[in-house]
Amino acid sequence: MARLELRPNCELCDKDLPPHSSEARICSYECTYCADCVENFLHNVCPTCGGNFVARPMRPQLSWRPEEKLGLVNNPASKVRVHTPFTMANISGHVSRIKDIAPEDR
Ligand SMILES: [Zn+2]
Ligand SMILES: [Zn+2]
């Protein structure tokens, strides 16, 4: 089964986003940012793909169906910290071009 990596940090401000953080936001490619960056700087525009964000689902700790080998006990969160390769100035321009277009029209 394909699965989210559950990246450990905001790719912009580097805040920790553990698997049960209610602040983690992801785009359709799993670019991962904190709610504060998404709302106040990115304006719901992914710096990489230009898509919108949704709250990252919380993977359960346990494998509630043991035969399926799911949950964090079997599929732990990634420990590889990711940082956007784009500069703040570059992201600002990108966001300005896209933010007023509804996600379904991008
Ligand atoms: Zn952030
Ligand atoms: Zn993206």
Describe the model.
Helices cover 18% and strands 8% of the residues. The chain is α+β, with helices and mostly antiparallel strands. It has one domain. Strands 2-1-3 form a three-stranded antiparallel β-sheet. The radius of gyration is 15 Å and the shape is elongated. One zinc ion binds next to loops.
Ligand roster:
zinc ion
The coarse silhouette is: elongated
Major sheet: 3 strands, antiparallel
Helix content: 10-25%
Write the layout of secondary structure elements.
Layout: E1 24-26, E2 32-34, H1 35-42, E3 54-55, H2 88-98
Antiparallel strand pairs: 1-2, 1-3
The chain binds zinc ion (ZN) (2 copies).
Which features does this protein show?
single chain, alpha+beta, three-stranded antiparallel β-sheet, elongated, binds zinc ion
Quick synopsis:
With 106 residues, the protein is α+β, with helices and mostly antiparallel strands.
